[in-house]
């Protein structure tokens, strides 16, 4: 991926208003790879004072979206399966890293891991994407 392509994809990903509302940032992007960051805020805690699974899933999903769209064509999730292993306190910074494990003409698959700053595993996911022929980012 050239730098102009990387910047175009990063700029387009900022239009994901849901992820932006959670403060998720894409901090690394390459062909078939993405790393995102999110700080757990008090309003992200569930009724037992641990991070809501939906927030953690969204962080993983954003890394997945960035990685599968990194090839320059629109890719959309077909299936994502997540397992939660541990919780994290409010104020904790979480990272999600998506790595491509398969790239086909119409589908691609990714391993996604959510960890704390010190590398403790919070969740792991597997994502399958459908690869369209439409260019990404979309032309405006």
Helix content: 10-25%
Give the overall pLDDT as a whole number: 94
CATH class: Alpha Beta
**Contiguous uncertain segments of 5+ residues:** none
What would you say the CATH architecture is? Answer: Roll
Round the Cα radius of gyration to an integer and report it: 15 Å
Number of helices: 3
What would you call the structural class? alpha+beta
Q: What is the count of distinct domains?
A: 1
CATH topology assignment: Thiol Ester Dehydrase, Chain A
Spatial gap, N to C terminus: 21 Å
Largest sheet: 6 strands, antiparallel
Task: Spell out the helices and strands N to C.
Answer: HHEEHEEEE
- State which percent range the strand residues make up: 35-45%
CATH superfamily: Hotdog Thioesterase
Shape: globular
Strand line-up across the major sheet: 1-2-4-5-6-3
